[in-house]
Write a structure and sequence with these properties.
The protein is mainly alpha-helical. The chain has helices at residues 2-9, 12-31, 36-66, 77-97, 99-113, 119-140. It has 2 domains: 1-73; 74-152, no CATH class. 77% of the residues lie in helices and 0% in strands. Helix 2 (12-31) packs antiparallel against helix 3 and helix 5 runs antiparallel to helix 6. The longest helix is centred in the middle third of the chain and has 31 residues, at 36-66.
Length: 152
Amino acid sequence: MKKNIIRGLLVPESIAGAVIISACVYLLGRVDAMPKASALLPGAVLWFGIVLSSIMIFSGIKNRLNSDGDIPFFVDANRFLIAAVLSCLYVPAVHFIGFYSATILFVPSTAWIFGYRNKRVIATVSIVFIASLFVIFSLIMGKELPSTFFLG
């Protein structure tokens, strides 16, 4: 029984969930220092992240304990490495060419790299995603994101 519980805990979902919860708890401490009106949205998002990560941990443990065979830690390690490299490239891209420009480049290119080839869907999802971010941050919240190379 003890071996099954340990086997259930050492799954990618549990490890990722624990990391996300730890980061959210740390950031909640920083949100407390913000003015109350400014802290409302970040606090809610962080609590939502804690709840969703907890659900991910428990469902991962449940699925692992109910499975008969061994489930590999990585289904495809190459895809994980590609995602990690793309994430590491995205962060400096935001700094150098701006948030919207980097996102306009990375959303469709990431889909393409992972093998999704429907250009119409890639374009539509990219436009809707970028437009949603613009509406939320620039219009609703009035927050200026890092300057954009292509748009301004």
